[in-house]
UniProtKB/TrEMBL annotation:
Protein name, as recorded: enoyl-CoA hydratase
Keyword set, alphabetical order: Lipid metabolism, Lyase
SUPFAM superfamilies noted in UniProt: ClpP/crotonase
Enzyme Commission (EC) number: 4.2.1.17
Listed InterPro entries: ClpP/crotonase-like_dom_sf, Enoyl-CoA_hyd/isom_CS, Enoyl-CoA_hydra/iso, Enoyl-CoA_hydra_C
Family statement: Belongs to the enoyl-CoA hydratase/isomerase family.
Any single GO BP term: fatty acid beta-oxidation
Organism: Actinacidiphila rubida
Length: 266
């Protein structure tokens, strides 16, 4: 049985053994539309996970049977004054950057609709597992705004500038099969299997060194977009941060003793 902790009304964190956390979007009556309250809860949950050294991988999931997340709560947005929208913006950004900045590897498990801010939450993860029911897209220009949860920056990093421009400018929705073919998602699985497969992938990742995983993610993120020489300096700094760690000593010892490592996570 996984340990469970609730953040506000709409976000749950479940901790699975060994070293896997599940960050659950739990506003099913609104298809997980991101309201102000949900954004606040999501940023709080991410802050707690970021400080938890016992977590090696986080999986982002949904309790709704037909949607991962449909994006911003437009009913709430429609009721906000301009001043209220300005005050809400930092809280909305904190939710998306909270997922993006998690220091451990992250996997999104996408089924059904993942649109606008919902797809941006998935894009903020390192890997996306989607099932055949998935429908993804960034349709913000169709309602007079732009992707504001990282979409204009994260999507080009996945599929290239021209492809991202086409998808954002047309506000097109893509079924799971096409999304996988174009590289918007990393793995396509049968309907109903996204969460199961994402947790299984997380388990395989979590079998590795917690220290190594975080350092590898840091090198990947910080080195992206740099020229090769600068990127290699980022990599060297990350290597130095783990070279004398307890995990490194245990990993080498376990290899030589032909046994599974017992990671200290230090």
């Amino acid at each position: 049985m996984a340990d469970e902790e609730r953040f506000g009304e709409f976000v749950v964190v479940r901790r699975h053994a060994p070293r896997v956390a599940e960050l659950v979007l739990d506003r099913p009556k609104a298809m997980n539309a991101v309201s102000s309250a949900m954004a606040e809860a999501l940023s709080q949950a991410c802050a707690a996970l970021a400080d938890d050294a016992t977590v090696s991988v986080t999986v982002l999931t949904s309790t709704h049977d037909r949607a991962f997340c449909v994006g911003a709560d437009l009913k709430e947005r429609n009721s906000l004054t301009d001043a209220e929208l300005v005050r809400q913006r930092p809280h909305a950004r904190a939710a998306y950057t909270g997922v993006l900045d998690l220091p451990m590897p992250t996997v999104a498990a996408v089924h059904g609709f993942a649109l606008g801010g919902g797809f941006e939450l998935a894009l903020a993860c390192d890997l996306i597992v989607a099932d055949e029911t998935a429908v993804v897209g960034l349709p913000e220009v169709s309602v007079g705004v732009i992707p504001g949860g990282g979409g204009t920056q994260l999507l080009p990093r996945r599929v290239g500038a021209a492809r991202a421009a086409e998808l954002i400018f047309t506000a097109r929705r893509l079924p799971g099969e096409e999304a996988a073919r174009l590289g918007l998602v990393d793995q396509l699985v049968p309907a109903g299997e996204a969460r199961t497969e994402a947790l299984a992938l997380a388990g395989r990742i979590a079998a590795n060194s917690p220290v190594g995983l975080r350092a590898a993610k840091r090198a990947l993120r910080l080195g992206h977009g740099l020229d090769l020489r600068a990127g290699l300096e980022v990599e060297d700094a990350a290597w130095r941060s783990v070279a004398f760690s307890g995990d490194r000593a245990e990993g080498v010892a376990a290899f030589n003793e032909k046994r599974s490592p017992d990671w200290p996570g230090e």
